[in-house]
Design brief:
By secondary structure, the chain is mostly helical. The chain is 71% helix and 1% strand. This is Sugar ABC transporter permease.
């Protein structure tokens, strides 16, 4: 076909009909889409602003301020004076600081396992369906709601004082050691008994975990001739190990923060013989009684790093004894 009959050719660089109009619409949509995205982001940040303000003003800001104060001599009234690592060196050389560490570790090592054992035992008793189950669950959970109050700690101190109900009861069995509160060898067990009594929160978590264990596993174990103890060891504990780890982690961190119960039970004296001088109690005494806020800040950061180390060890150890569904262990 000749060039005359083929009609006029379009130049290679010439735009097609309507191309400019379509491009303009696409560009307009892109700009409006970006504007809409910015508006949505702005709305999201506005909704987050109360949380961000709380994070900066109530958490991150005070934490950074206390980190700075831990390297200073500060008494709440005068300007902080930079002293470097003197607070930390004084802290490690302080015999009362070492005593507070000993008391706190004893409380954590004894109170946390016993509390979890009490919670697991109650959860096993309440896991089966029976009449009045809701009432018993509520009754066992109630101490967790009121156990941390000052009034309960006062009652606890009265129960374990000299010539009180515990002292009189143990005399019936020939044990005459006096009240637990006044004996430096037994006063820490008053706090342990109080924390064991507050087993309701981990009990509820254990109950939720027990209800997630498939009944088919117990039926298969019964067919194989496994008794109650063997079913508990071979089925319940492995399937419940993630919940045990979760409760162990929470209760360990919570135990390191014990303060109010020790303060009330000891009547503010952390005694006798500093037997109830928990770490947070000594921190409070140094910061707000002796006005050594720099020293108290150093203690606070030492506690934070120690709890972080304990948490890291627990996470490392769970690889050996926690069994997750679908894992090869």
């Amino acid at each position: 076909m000749s060039d005359a009959t083929a009609g006029p050719r379009k130049r290679p660089g010439s735009p097609r009909k309507g191309a400019g109009k379509g491009a303009g619409k696409g560009a307009g949509k892109g700009v409006s889409g970006r504007r809409l995205g910015r508006r949505e982001n702005l709305a999201g940040y506005l909704f987050l602003s109360p949380w961000l303000a709380g994070l900066v003003l109530l958490t991150a800001g005070p934490a950074l301020a206390s980190l700075y104060l831990s390297f200073t001599d500060y008494n709440l009234f005068d300007s902080p004076q930079w002293i470097g690592l003197d607070n930390f060196s004084d802290m490690f050389a302080d015999p009362r600081w070492r005593k507070s560490v000993e008391v706190t570790l004893q409380y954590v090592a004894i109170g946390t396992p016993l509390k979890l054992l009490a919670a697991l035992g109650a959860a096993l008793l309440l896991s089966s369906r029976r009449r009045g189950q809701a009432f018993y669950r509520a009754a066992f959970y109630a101490p967790s709601l009121v156990g941390a109050s000052v009034s309960i700690a006062i009652v606890w101190r009265a129960i374990f004082s000299d010539d009180a109900i515990v002292d009189r009861t143990q005399r019936l069995f020939g044990v005459d050691i006096g009240g637990w509160v006044g004996n430096p060898d037994t006063s820490i067990y008053v706090l342990v008994a109080l924390t064991m009594w507050q087993f309701g929160a981990p009990m509820v978590i254990f109950l939720a975990g027990l209800h997630q264990i498939p009944r088919e596993l117990y039926e298969a174990a019964e067919v194989d001739g496994a008794g109650p103890w063997r079913r508990f060891v071979s089925v319940t504990l492995p399937m419940l190990s993630p919940v045990v780890f979760f409760n162990l982690l929470l209760e360990t961190i919570h135990s390191f923060q014990v303060f109010a119960s020790a303060l009330v039970v000891s009547n503010g004296r952390w005694g006798p013989a500093d037997s109830l001088l928990v770490y947070t109690g000594y921190l409070y005494e140094q910061g707000f009684v002796n006005l050594r806020m720099g020293y108290a800040s150093a203690m606070a950061w030492t506690l934070l790093l120690s709890v972080g180390l304990v948490t890291a060890v627990l996470f490392w150890s769970q690889k050996k004894w926690v069994h997750y569904e679908g894992s090869e262990r």
